[in-house]
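debug: dumping io for the single-chain case to check the tokenizer round-trip. Nothing else runs in this session.
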Amino acid sequence: MNAPFGLTADTLTLPQPYLLFLGDTVERGFAKTALGLRDWAPEKCVGELALAGAQVTTGLPPMTPAEAYAAGARALVIGVANSGGVIPQSWRASLVEALEAGLDLVAGMHTRLSDIPELCEAAARRGRRLIDIRVPPANIPVATGRKRSGKRLLTVGTDCALGKKYTALALAKAFAARGLASDFRATGQTGIMIAGGGMPMDAVVSDFEAGAAEMVSPDADPAHWDVIEGQGSLAHPAYAAVSLGLLHGSQPDVFVVCHEPGRTDMLGTAGYQVATIEEIIDLTTALGRRTNPGIRCGGVSFNTSALDDAEAQDVMQRESARLGLPVADPVRGGPAFDALVDSCLA
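debug: decoded output
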């Protein structure tokens, strides 16, 4: 559980390097596992495999499983986190092909690799492994609500898949660069692959969500920071439950709101508009006070990947002035991100 920032996927007992599987994904947000591994563990990724109809790419060389194996890959990682975490029938021939080529399979889906008969048969025949990451530990306790020692920061969002993991990783790295004791606490499959430990929060039974969050961030030295990867959104009609359990169990002293300027509809839920930043600040503060009365917002993290630099700087400056809070894109960094770090540590 206590995987410090800087531990990469090679601390897991996972075969590497990886061929990143994108399936037939058309939504960039659903490819966050592949993109996260490309950005935070690039030395572990040799190429990508996409099916006909896919509209997302990591920018890595396209490879067949056989080509990837010849290039050194030892596992195919399902780099998609789609609605429901399913492995559709249309993917399965390619997954069997990867096993036949000598690759193990690694997935963080709700559908487990080991529950798919054709994959089990091919893995047994070829002596390959099926590795499911999204499996919580046994005997997670019900939360106690007890206040724990140490300091905690949680990333929260106006929607899903817009930068909570990237923000937490960047903040943990920035805290460490300032000489502070800090750990990145992974709560999703990609973060777990990057960090080498964590808790797949969205696979935990609802009654134990807050207890699982308490396990992720145990008692620590009073000066120590846990930077906790958020999940879902308190305003999302499908995924608010995991967000609330994580909020109550992590007891953050500080939270950072993650948002993508220009996104209007919630991911995977037609007809629901993305929550406003102010709505998430108010919800997080009101609900977070149940287990930490001192909770506060440290600022806002923008995902400006769809904007050029001038547009990004303009929207961040305008929103910072409007909100009275630092607004930064952790990937772009710079003085705005330094100000966000300062505010979180104030």
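debug: round-trip ok. The CA atoms of residues 204 and 292 lie 22 Å apart.
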